[in-house]
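Worked Example 4.2. Read the sequence first, then its structure tokens.
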Amino acid sequence: MSPKNVIFKKICKDKSVGVYMGKRDFVDRGDSVDPVDGVILVDPEALQGRKVFVTLSCTFRYGRDDMDVMGIAFRRELYLSTRQVYPPLQDREKGIHTKIQARLLRKLGHNAYPFFFEFPDNLPCSVALQPAPRDVGKQCAVEFEIKAFSAESQDAKVRKRSSVTLMLRKVQYAPEGEGTAPSVETTREFVMSDKPLHVKASLDKEIYYHGETIKVHVNVTNNSSKNIKNIVLSVDQVATVVLYSNDSYVKCVDIEDSGDSVSPGATLQKVYKLLPVLANNRERRGIALDGKLKHEDTNLASTSIIREGVLKEVMGIMVSYRVMVKLIVGGEVGLEVPFKLMHPKPDAETESAEEEMVFQEFKRSYLKGMVGDDEDEEGNVSGGDDMAPKEK
């Protein structure tokens, strides 16, 4: 069976505009970001003289759209760029930037037109704070979307039935090269004890991939007269909302209550295993995710890496991770070991003229059970195949 290229398609309710894209994840590679490209299919009869526009936007939402406290809007548009697609402002062939666009234009016919956007350097990656199962409204998030619409002009009021929206994700992959494996140690002295307690915690490497087990090496030398009653290890996710208030949300995303004890004069050397994954945290409000798309699953948010020269304040939500090692000894002795949690860099994508294109529609059935979805608007429904030309 030959490889297949999935094409994401969505058509507005009045059938005047349809969007076709080869992907919805766009990679920030540190020195560059994948451009956003696709094809708009128009129906001149349904347009009734209207023009067709497409926008790429980045929005930060820190609460519901209807919230406004002391004049501060809880929704901020970080970026908006608009292109006129129809009538075209340039020759159609000059607007083709990728092979998938060229193939889509051949497939969809003369009423299809390409579009192309480049991300500016200073935009954050997609992040969303997970709502609780019964929460309503839109969650706190940094979101990207492509919106195509038909209207008399760019600034005219857009009818819902004449517009269509696709959510995108801007994601980061782990940088090349290995950093220094993190290691933290501390010495604690106690009253009425001549000698101290020494603890060291270290990881095998600085960067872990989503779904990878984290091995924590713990060395305890208890020369004190205190009895260590227990050792508890956890992975904390720290999500800091930097755009408005610098609020931080610290969430434990995995924990190991070992029950290990270390008596006075004894030592312990042990490797503990932790696995921070979304599957074990699905019901918890406030967990940061890698910008959940409407019909797809996702994962815990990746560590935020700021490009040099970019202000932290425009990043929306910053995410970091740490392993916490706590020794219960009368009070508590704790160590904090930072690390990065990211996606591995994928192999280079290749396109072949022989690959079959498979069109995937967006239907309401994808959205069942998803709280706070914005695709229940009248215009944002999937069209059938009646708009696209049939395969000859």
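Now turn to a second chain, presented in exactly the same format:
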Amino acid sequence: MESRAINFGAGPSALPASVLEEATKGLLNFNGTGIGIAEISHRSKEFTTYLQSVEQNIRKLLDVQPTHSILFTQGGGSTQFSAVVLNMLARHRLLHPQLKDEDRVLDYVVTGSWSKKAAEEARRMGGSTVKIAADSRKYSKDQKSFDNIPTADAYSFSNDPALIYYCANETVDGVEFSAEETSPASFPYQLLPKNALLPLVGDYSSSFMSRPIPHLSDHAIIYAGAQKNIGPAGLTILIVRNDCIVDVDAAAKLGATPVPICLSYKTLADNNSLYNTPPVLSIYITGLVLEYMLQLGGLDYYAGLTNRKSKKLYDVLKDGQTKGIFEGKVKESSGSQMNVVFDVVGEGLLAKFIAGAEERGMKGLKGHRSVGGVRVSIYNAVTEEETDQLISYMEQFAGRHKVNEE
């Protein structure tokens, strides 16, 4: 383990070393079957029992009530850009069969690259009118950048939309809806339509299982790629309110767009996520991570850990800004706890910063190609001690290259 780098990458991201060691055993012999987890039948008694335990641990950690089903699928969050639209438009068609397509409205809150892509995919799918309920670019310095979460007065929701979509953490841009409702960056739940069956959809990929999800029971759909906090790439976890698991074929007969069978939530639910072969290995490792999380104290432990790591990072970033070396990319009240993004100021200093970090065994810090700079992803498996090593390096770097004094 001494040769392992500290992985600050945005995903696939770090996994606990003890989990990886345990997973190697399962690759050879899964739960005493004599067959490796990557070889075993997904319909075997041993695996289906294990899948049920993964579901139960998600329910336990997030307090998911029986009103919602937990589904396991493939394709990542980007596939859900399409699946969410198709399933929720099918539901809306069954509820309002006489409504014209142009009168079916999808509300999108656009606060970064991923919600922007989700809205673009919704337009491409057709069958509705896509309305931007809020666009954070309007409130940035250049009116082009995603560097903030709009305040409550910026939102305008439709009366009866087929869905209301937001992304809880925009990884590339480092902006985040706060989990604290009193924060300026919190989602304005109080402004949503007063509907007992609110069609609220949240992409929680980057913050999933790092802390409780506020108003989880009010959501129609929550989805997350596992490859940020709880597993390897290949697995997408859905938490779907039961009234949103509808007969998409019946909706198609009424004029809705036919839903591919493996994108239908009803197909997944009716077959216990086993209609076709699921990502067995990813589910196995995710299950090990969930057990590890429960042993450490669940989401209370991880919420505290995340708060401490992010506070330290933002403190050293702020200090570096006073020295003229670092420059934040996101407004202070909208900064992500999972993905801290900033620029290194000065000719050639960004490359020097990245190279110096890699020499010290810290990798994955280079910012997304679309925005550049530095992106520090401190997902669950990144320890506080590892974060402290980066902070120490940032302090040293800023001290050597400082331009301004307070």
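Notes for the reader: The chain has a mean pLDDT of 94. The CA atoms of residues 143 and 278 lie 42 Å apart.
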